[in-house]
Amino acid sequence: MPDSASSSSQAPASSAWLARVHVTLKPVVLDPQGSAVLGGLHTLGFHTVSSVRVGKYLEITLDAPDQASAQQAVQQMCAKLLANPVIEQYRFEVEPMPR
Questions:
Q1: CB neighbours of 58 closer than 8 A, spacing ≥ 6?
Q2: What is the distance between the alpha carbons of residues 70 and 96, in angstroms, rounded to a whole number?
Q3: What 3-state class would DSSP assign to 83?
Q4: How many Å apart are CA 36 and CA 52, to the nearest integer?
Q5: CA dihedral (16, 20, 26, 27) positive or negative
Q6: What is the β-pairing status of strands 15-25 and 88-96?
Q7: CA gyration radius for the chain?
Q8: 3-class SS at 40?
Q9: pLDDT digits (tens, 9 = 90+) for 17-62
Q10: Bridge partners of 92?
Q11: pLDDT in tens, 53-64
Q12: Quick check: pTM over 0.90?
């Protein structure tokens, strides 16, 4: 018979998760890099382009016991490092890591 004290102290099994994070400037923040890209596109003949906003896309692989834990970890990563909450907004999806 297994000892209940030892089985409850085991670490939970982790699964690999893939987080896709999109970070963009808030709409009220000017985007000089987007303006430069817009100018370059116009120079290349893409005159139908009226606006460009530049952002960041990140893919993060992490281990967590469940999807809720993975989402919580990614939320903290975004709030503490990946995005500047004063000028940027972010969104993310977390799904099981493809095999």
A1: 19, 20, 21, 23, 82
A2: 10
A3: coil
A4: 9
A5: negative
A6: antiparallel
A7: 21
A8: helix
A9: 999 999 999 999 999 999 999 999 999 999 999 999 999 999 999 9
A10: 21
A11: 999 999 999 999
A12: no
CB 70 within 8 A of CB 60: no
CATH code: domain 14-96 is 3.30.1280.10
The token duo for 72 is 């919580």
Q: Where are the beta strands (DSSP E) in 9-67?
A: 15-25, 55-64
Closest to 50 (Cα-Cα) out of 37, 66, 65? 37
Residue 82's contacts (CB-CB under 8 Å, 6 or more residues apart) are: 21, 23, 56, 58, 90
Joined together, the tokens standing for residue 9 give 């102290």
Task: State how far the Cα of 39 lies from the Cα of 45, in Å rounded to an integer.
Answer: 10
CA nearest neighbour of 62 among 31, 19, 12: 19
> Which amino acid is present at 31?
D
Instruction: Look up residue 77 and give its amino acid.
Output: M
Q: Which two tokens stand for residue 3?
A: 């000892």
Domain boundaries, the chain: 14-96
